[in-house]
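Re: that chain you flagged

S.,

Sorry for the slow reply, it's been a week of failed gels. I finally had a moment to sit down with the sequence you sent. For the record, here it is as I used it:
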Amino acid sequence: MPHPAPVIPQTVGAAAPHLRRLLEFAEPARDDVCLDVARGRGPMPAALGPQVRHVTAVDAMPVDAMPGGARRGRTSTVTFETGPVRIAGGDRTAPPTASGVAGPVRHGDPDGSTVRADATALPYRDGTFSLVTARFSLYNLGDPEPVLRELLRVCRRGGRLIIADLVRGNLTGPDRDRIERLRDPGHPGTPSIARLTELITSAGATIRRLDVFTVERPVEPWLADARDPVAAQRIREALVDEVDGGPRTGAKPRIIGGELWFTQSWAHVAAEPI
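Prediction finished late last night. Pasting the structure tokens below so you have them in one place:
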């Protein structure tokens, strides 16, 4: 039987364990000029803000979803880290200056604005940022290859691109995506670890570090975002059936403290533009 996943020590404020792990992996520095590209408003800008010089937050979306269809000194070797983590269940960004660098994120402003842009045509000059992050957004912004090339374009030489996303093992089939697509019919599919790293290197980067780990999550908060309550119930029943010895879903469900939990695999990748 799997052992409970340890909780990461609180080393980065009060952020959730998985976000603290990502922040420690990204190694933000006081002189970093950062760009976070997300679908909607993610937690990274607020988490990075106190640790860096500037943060620019971009709420990106696929081109066909934009109004009118408009377009427009770290670790030098590859290292691998593993280990599980358990998850228990409005910022303002100033516009870019003339140099193309955005002003600092301001916290606690409920009426703050967000830069909206096509992730394949970001409105910034080449090499503007020393740290670029994309947390669970790469596969939700259209074709990941041009998105990666654009993220690398705005990342300066010697800077870091940090990608965080769901993955599956290289020998694991795509069956695990069945319950993901029941919850969200638009789910783009979970890449293998090898596929994700291949995409990044093909886009023009060198991978410096890779952190792959399992995450246990309670099912009910995850299912609360399901688009169809009937589909959510089908997922719930399939997971309970597996716990009772039924067909495997690939989600490795189990009961913890009377609650139904399931497992995902996450990867953090640190890359540097070539």
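What I noticed first: DSSP finds seven helices and twelve strands in the chain.

Talk soon,
D.
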